[in-house]
Amino acid sequence: MVKLILRKEEFEVKAGMTVQHALEKVGLDSHSVLATRQGELLTDDEILHEGDVIKLVPVISGGKL
Amino acid sequence: MKCRKCTEKAVINMRQHKLALCKTHYPQWIIDQTQRFVEKYLMFTPQERVLVAVSGGKDSLSLWDILWQLGYQVDGLYIGLGIDGGIGYSDESQRLSEQFAHDRDLRLNIVDVEGEYGRTVPELAQKTHRGKGKPCSVCGLSKRHIMNQAAVQGGYDVLVTGHNLDDEAAVLFGNALNWITGYMLRQGPVLDARAGMVRKAKPLCRFYEREMAAYALVRGIDYIYDECPHAVGSKTIYYKELLNRLEADRPGAKQSFYLSFLQAKENGLFRTPDPEQVSSQEIGVDGKLLHPCPTCGQPTTTGGECAFCRMVADIR
Question: N or C: which end of chain A has fewer CB within 10 A?
Fold first, then answer.
């Protein structure tokens, strides 16, 4: 399995799918979060491997002027 | 996916540009593009003094980093709003802004709202009953006033903010839903100076929000990940999510929406009531003529004190 972590939330998806597919599976999209593995940014077509821990970095903020 | 410019692994794919770049070429592309936009929209020159408003977030710290790398004379301004939200939001954002400045030996000016005016922004909002229970309108009013005041008093030529294309598209979307043309007339990459108000510019207005988050990550900029606790559920975030759904189906839709608007404005779609008599710089968003506030000197359409000075007078 692959673990996706967004702030305090955790999701699990099957290994072998792409970042984009994994995000869709958990109801997210690549315009709202960036996927990182061991601090490295991943593109949407990156294949996720068994045991991967993917940290999702939120993109959208709403506190500007 | 490979980088367009070399054989390295790409860290970002920008579908609207059909461009994928690696961790070396991506930040350089952002820096080069920023320089192009600064020149294209006549934002400022290397001879001018620039004040960048920083919040500790990804956009403003990235903007400061980019302008610093480009060699501009750029100082920072941090406004302590006194927002806690159970996570020490303002304290942490100030710490990150100070750390950023310290690491690069840059000058950071700090204005503490509670120290200057005796109350934090949430307290000001509560005391004055503005903003329907949320401090966002008082926060915006205070930040706009203090940023301009700091830029004028500090002798800066231009005040820059980290607004990205998603910010601009969301504001435009909200204003277009209600055809608030006064705001639309004034929205753009640059707002020229006028009596009592310094020039304002948004050098990141052509970059998507995810591109700025990616830049901050690739550059190793330590920024505050937490959202302002008061922004949760805001209209801006809702509009951004709607626009992102459009973008997912039609790559480039957000960019096209914003750039087409700028072009339409350039073509004269939005005009002042009487362009022969008055320029857009002399009227406010409500279409009324601007006058200097007798207390602070900043332009206002009220005829008397500006909204910020009235608010401060109320609590005193």
Answer: N
Q: Which of A43, A63, A64 sits opposite B11 (nearest CB)?
A: A43
| CB-count burial class (<10 Å; 0-12, 13-18, 19+) for B249 | exposed
Tens-level pLDDT at each residue, chain A (65 residues): 999 999 889 999 999 999 999 999 999 988 899 999 999 999 999 999 999 999 999 998 865 54
Q: Which CATH architecture has domain A2-58?
A: Roll (3.10)
Using the Cβ of B148 and the Cβ atoms of chain A, whether some distance falls under 8 Å is answered with no
Could you tell me if residue B253 is left (phi over 0), alpha (psi between -120 and 50 degrees) or otherwise beta? alpha
- Here the tokens at position B160 are 């820059």
Kindly report the pTM of this predicted structure: 0.94
ipTM summary value = 0.94
Interface with A, mutate which of B90, B209, B224 (most A CBs under 10 A): B209
Helix (H) or strand (E) holding B146: helix B136-153
A5 near B CB under 8 A: no
At position B83, the amino acid (one-letter code) is: I
